[in-house]
Amino acid sequence: MINRREFLATPLAAAAAPAKGKADACIFLWLGGGAAQIDTFDPKRRGDGKKVAGAAYGAIDTAIKNVQVCEHLKQTAPLLDRCAVLRSITHPIVSEHAAAANLVHTGRTPSGTLQYPSIGSVVSHQLGSKTEEVPNYVVMGYPNITRDPGFLGAKFGYVYLTQTEIGPNGLVRPPDVDSTRQDRRETLLASMREGHQNRNAGDAAIQAQGDVSRQAFRLAGPRFMNVFALNRESKTMRESYGGEFGQRCLLARRLVQAGARFVEVSFNLNFLNGSGWDTHNDGQTNQHLLIRDLDKAFATLLLDLEKQKLLETTLVVIATEFGRPPEFDAGGGRGHQSEAFTMVLAGGGIKSGLAVGATDDLSKKVIERPVSIPDFHATIHNALGIDPLKNLYAGDRPVPITDHGKIVQELFA
User: Fold this and answer.
1) Residue 364 DSSP SS3
2) Cα distance between residue 152 and residue 155, in whole Å
3) For residue 366, which of 88, 171, 219, 318 is within the disulfide window of CB 3.0 to 4.6 Å?
4) To 5 degrees, how large is the angle CA 216–CA 221–CA 226?
């Protein structure tokens, strides 16, 4: 028999600890520039591209009842039951891309005394390595301080990739350096590094740099470098992913399959429409080309992960720094809007096939279930089995993983 206090504590404890997702890796698709929610995952009535505010395209039905998306997401639409569409993301930073991107990546506004770690670095820190031969955290397409490890240190930084078919240049041995010569170099470097670390035993930064140096040599081995052999994939598979962004998504799948924990794939290919997702003025004219590329790559990634039996353990995220308003500017494009926009989550064991939150008739304001950026972070961490309330430490200073973020519990019901 339990007493009254124990009886009351049991449901309270259950309510305080929602179920976690099954993900052990995350692919983070970054639509830098501010993707228009009204033209993608939160379509509304049509505008005229000039004076009448509204969506630029028609809407189509999806695998989720009563949930539509833009007509250019035709491959994604029948797969939306694998997704949760967060239509009520909101934050206050509307004017500056860099500040908004920093907020979305770190979950916080900058501090004068502390550099906060990016979400990729936190995931790397909390989940640890699956293998020492593949980096935990990889960024493709857009290196930036907002992706940095901050106070967690260099060990939890990212490996940056510029191309999909070769590894980082720093890990490729020059053709005139054979294995014997390489071994001699590594032995000499190891001796010098060990001496330097011993002389500076109390300096955490020097110790971390030494660890990173050792890791770099491990990454130069075949397990990581073979990830870039995209030609081992079938021609049909490669073509189904599409162009450069799609090939990055294919590489992301191969990285996760090899053991990476967090892979950010930046879709910053401005040459498609001249402006990327920052569709002021003429950038709006060919925005549909970006949306079609996203559609093809995202839909193929979901099906490929499913085929590889990785979707349940891989959280796929579509994120951007803010959205766009329904009104058109003088050049026929759109300005910035952070009060209401959309992110998408898929896989990772979350509850899918639903849209969370709602906006008004022109997607300008959240009218149901607002989700803050700390909430967004808390939800991603929970899907990865990470406690979003846990403290990290900047020296002796405790810093919660999220800034009071609350999990979107509908995804873990």
Assistant:
1) coil
2) 8
3) 88
4) 120
HSE at residue 84, side-chain half, CA atoms within 13 A, is 26
Paired sense of beta strands 366-368 and 358-359, if any = antiparallel
| pLDDT tens digits along 76-105 | 999 999 999 999 999 999 989 999 999 999
Asked if 32 contacts 318 with a C-beta cutoff of 8 angstroms, the reply is: no
Mean pLDDT of 157-183: 68
Q: How many helices (H) and strands (E) does the chain have?
A: 10, 14
> Rounded to an integer, what distance in angstroms lies between the CA atom of residue 265 and that of residue 355?
24
Q: Which pairing describes strands 137-140 and 59-61: parallel, antiparallel, or unpaired?
A: unpaired
Question: What ranges in 107-178 are assigned the alpha helix state H?
Answer: 119-127
**CB-count burial class (<10 Å; 0-12, 13-18, 19+) for 179:** exposed
Classify residue 200 by its DSSP letter: T
All domains of the chain in start order, with CATH: 19-172+220-412 (3.40.720.10)
Which of 319, 377, 291 has the alpha carbon at shortest distance from 32? Answer: 319
Whether residue 12 is predicted with pLDDT greater than 50 in this model: the reply is no
The proportion of the chain whose per-residue pLDDT surpasses 90, expressed as a percent, equals 71
CA distances to 29, 123, 301, 317 from 237, in Å: 19, 29, 10, 21
Decide: 142 and 30 in contact? Cβ < 8 Å.
Answer: yes
Which SS3 state, helix, strand or coil, does residue 194 take?
Answer: helix
